[in-house]
Structure formats: structure tokens, C-alpha cells
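Good day; I would like, with your permission, to put a structural problem before you. A protein sequence and the C-alpha cells that stand for its backbone fold form the material at issue. The record follows directly beneath this note:
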Amino acid sequence: MRKLALLILCLIPLYTIAQTGKVKIFGTVKDYKGRPIDSANVLLLNESFNPTHQTISDDDGKYSIEVSKGNYFGMAVVNMKHYGKTRLEYWAWNIPVDGDIEINPRYQKMEVYALNAFRPQGAYPSYIIYFRPMSLTKSQENQVEDIAPDLEKSEIDVEINGENVEIYSVQKVKEYNEDKDGNADYMSGYLLQTALPKQFHDDAQRFRVVLKDRETGDKGEAIYFLFDNNYK
């Protein structure tokens, strides 16, 4: 009986996990010298940009969030003591969580915002990637309206499913926006055309864009998951 009772006690946690369907998003928050960033807020956001789950990285930069299985609109990582002074923030988008998933944010003075990607139908086999980079150094300069760096291919790395892919073209474009009074305003973004990866995942393709501005030394990155099984 004692062995049976012990077995039942051991099975209770497994049964609870099966019943709740809970899984983890976890990882380590670091800078570009490999140093952990502690006390960083890690927030999962819905489409209204309201936090649905949140935690804080520990002294070693580690974090873990327990969530239900599903797709999550976005994840932001920021330490508000640093924000706007020595660092900006990190973003991940369209996160599929079917099981435990590891995301290791790295961030410094460059924020790679609004990362997105799609496969253009009827065009040369490739991906089109969009993002809006924002440089802390440029934002701190006086009389600087455009805080996006002037990037060349050599300053951009694109990984798809962990594989570095060739960048065919880089275009700096204007993104429409409105100021606080509702007047038309514009911010700079980038459109990239890249090669396809050699290997596709069955569920979602994982994009990672890493930037390093030669002029300022600012660095940043973001990730995006694309569900594109129809366009492999």
C-alpha cells in the first residue's frame, strides 16, 4: 500500500500538467557581451498591447513564464531603469507555443520594432521582411528627427530557422504614422528581400534579424514566427 501511495503521489504532478495543458516560455536575457540583464520585465502582450502574462528576470538573467498552449501576439523585454538611458527593448512576435519554448532575448541600444515577414506569391522565391529600427544614440542627439540608422547589407544579419540566409536587397522606406494631434507623420522602416532557408519547419518559420549600426555601434535584434505552410 505504501508503494502504491507513493506512486500516486508521483503521478499527481504529471496528471495536473496534462489537465491544465500548461507549458513554459523560458530563457536568459543578456547584452551583447554575454552579461545577464537582471530585473528585466518580460511581458506577453495581446493585440491591444495589454499584458496577459509577465515575470522578471533574476540575477542571472533567467526567466520563465507558465502559459496555456496557443499562439501569442507579442513579447516585450525591458528594464525600465535602463530604458532610454543605456538600452531600449527587445521584441518577439507571433509566438507559437505547442510545448516548452526557449527565447533568449539580447538587447542594447537598438530596438528592432514591428518585425514582420511574408512570402510574395508569384514573385522570385524569397521572403520580404519589414522592421522599424530605432537607435538610442540617435534619439539622444540634438535636432535628430529620424532615429533610424542608415543600414547596409553588411550591418544586417537574417536567420531563418537558425540558418543565415542571403539578403538580396535592402530598402529604407517611410512608414505612415500620426502625431499626438492626429497630423500625418512618418517614421523610417526597412524592407528586405532574402533567400529562402534550406529547411522549413512543419509549423512556423522562425525569423531572427540582428542589426549593428557601424556609425553609432548600436546593436539590437528581434524574432518573428511566420505560419506559411502554403508558400514553401
About this structure: The chain has two domains: 20-108, 109-232. The longest helix spans residues 2-20. The longest strand covers residues 167-178. The CA atoms of residues 60 and 210 lie 23 Å apart.
